[in-house]
Amino acid sequence: MSRIEIDGKSVDVPPNINLIEAARAAGIEIPHYCYHPGLSVAGSCRMCQLEVEQNGRKALVIGCATTAAEGMKISTTAERVLKQRQMVLEFLLQNHPLDCPICDDAGECELQNYYMKYGLHDSRVELAEKYRKHKVIDLGPTVVLDSERCVLCSRCVRFLQEITGTGELGIFGQGMDSELLTIPSVRLDNPYSGCVVDLCPVGALTDKDFRFKRRVWYLKKVPSVCQACSRGCNIEIYYDIRHPYKGPGRRIQRLKPRYNHFVNEWWICDRGRYSYHAVDAPDRLTTVQTRSSNGDSAPNIKRVLQEAARAIKNAKEKHGTKSIAVLGSANSSNEDLYVLHRLFTQHLGVHHFDVSLKSEPSGEEDEILRKADLAPNRRGALEIGLRPAASGKFSGDNIIRAALAHEIYVLIVVRHDLSLVLRPEDFNRLGNLDHLLYLGEHESPMVGIAHGVIPIAAWAERDGSYTNFQGRVQRTTQAFPPLGQARPEWEVWRLLGAEVGLTIKAKTAEEVFAELTKNVAAFRGLTWESLIPSGRMLAGVPEPPYRKVRTARPLE
After folding, report:
1. Contact yes or no for 152/180 (Cβ under 8 A)
2. Which CATH number does 289-537 carry?
3. Which architecture characterizes domain 127-278 according to CATH?
4. N or C, which end of the chain is more exposed by having fewer CB within 10 Å?
5. Closest CA to 435 of 311, 309, 290
6. Helices 334-341/509-519 angle, 10° precision
7. Right CATH number for 2-93 from 3.40.190.10, 3.10.20.740, 3.20.20.70, 2.30.30.240?
8. Cα-Cα-Cα-Cα dihedral sign, residues 67, 68, 72, 76
9. Beta carbons within 8 Å of 361's beta carbon, 6+ residues apart
């Protein structure tokens, strides 16, 4: 460690740390544009200039490219430092368009923020003299570029060179003609293209999905975990439920990556970034349904669960527990799976269960973040005990075969659309079971053949925890209430348990998790609070090494 002094405050910093990060450790922000801790140092914007005194000599340095050394005295507020910042801002604003009222980045733009904090100078440039560049350039399927707003920080260029290794963007021209553009005949169309919008400190790069949808000052945010694959990238949900007239039916406005150096660093793939649309999709299930309603009255969840409980009891009495099967979901939370396991396996003695089918689709995998396994909690399901016998006798595929062979009388299905894996005639035969209970988030052909249908809350509508492929347990946070009659899955199992003689006292996801940690060895020692902000590893599972995402060499 080296001891340095920043604005009169002594702080110990690790070796090889630059002055921006050293100041951050002391709780002091150094303004910057081109610097990003996940990318190589460009040192081009000059916004991070500081006054450094060492060995009796004072000099102006740029914080991003200067390493902290023992005995340094650093001033972030010296008069000439403030003057330099103001001059850099004046230079950047010389040709910057005055279109803040229509810019998506207004409210979180670092050019705005730094001007208000360090600038506030009178412009010496007439509006007519501003240098014009290209506007509204369609870079690819997700990103739009406005070159006039660009401050040439090169963050996006370095990301595409150093992280994805695809290199679609570059800075062309010299002097006043320098401009950010795509490489000729190349589209910005890689699986991580949305990250360049996160990196842009101004409004030069905007996301088509969010463009002109909502002002950022309307948005609230909560920490969460991506559900698009088994990595469990950390994210923030940005949502707005106070202004529905600005976009009826759209509560989530965007997802942004949340830093976790063990899981995803600063990044997120586009598959996860745009996965939130499923939460507010038009085909969301919002009402309880049952075959036996006959239109007399609207069914409620108690009625559906009473019918399911009667069918379970009858099947168990007449044919034994081998006549009952559960096809759960690896997309369910740890709390969902724990209560499911406690109800069916421990209380009812049902052992025909699984959480997956071999025929289910997998995704593309790469060396950056994406995993082929699209289920966010398969590791959690396995640790809790929801796995078929080693012989595979009770695997999901064999459960379906047994149901078609009239060996299963009661089948409970969570989320799976079996019409995608069965021939139409076989799928329709499932409706002839004594009872088929379906829990899902979206409309599907399963609704048409099930005896009872219960809508369940989406991941953004409830609190929960998930275990990624490494064994890291992380939390999601409820952003807003579930739609219609939907409720968390574990609550459905708690209510069904009451109908078959099992009392579960837990009333919140936190209370269920506390019970889980007492009864499942892999989760012992964990607490609900410890899962924020970056999660905790399962008991006995070593912490993975610091994750450094880089697929290409830094720019020379």
Report:
1. yes
2. 3.40.50.740
3. 2-Layer Sandwich (3.30)
4. C
5. 311
6. 60
7. 3.10.20.740
8. positive
9. 374
**254, β-bridge pairs:** 238
Q: What is residue 556's predicted lDDT score, i.e. its pLDDT?
A: 42
Buried b (16+ CB within 10 A) or exposed e, 184-216: eeeebebbbbbbbbbbbbbbbbbbbbbeeebeb
**Dihedral angle over CA of 203, 207, 211, 215, nearest 10:** -60
Q: How far is Cα 350 from Cα 234, in angstroms, rounded to an integer? A: 35
pLDDT tens per residue across span 255-301: 999 999 999 999 999 999 999 999 999 999 999 999 875 555 678 99
Mean pLDDT, rounded, for 378-407:
86
| Residue 178, beta-bridge partner list | none
User: How confident is the model over 88-105, as a mean pLDDT?
Assistant: 90
Count of H-run helices and E-run strands, the chain: 14, 22
Backbone phi, then psi, for 62, in 5-degree steps?
-95, 130
Percentage of residues in the chain having pLDDT higher than 90: 83
DSSP state of 335: H
Domain residue ranges of the chain, discontinuous segments joined by +:
2-93, 127-278, 289-537
CA distance 440 to 455: 5
Over 70: is that where the pLDDT of 390 sits? no
Measured CA to CA, the distance from residue 25 to residue 220 in angstroms comes to 27
Contact predicate 522/383, CB 8 Å: yes
pLDDT in tens, 217-270: 999 999 999 999 999 999 999 999 998 877 788 999 999 999 999 999 999 999
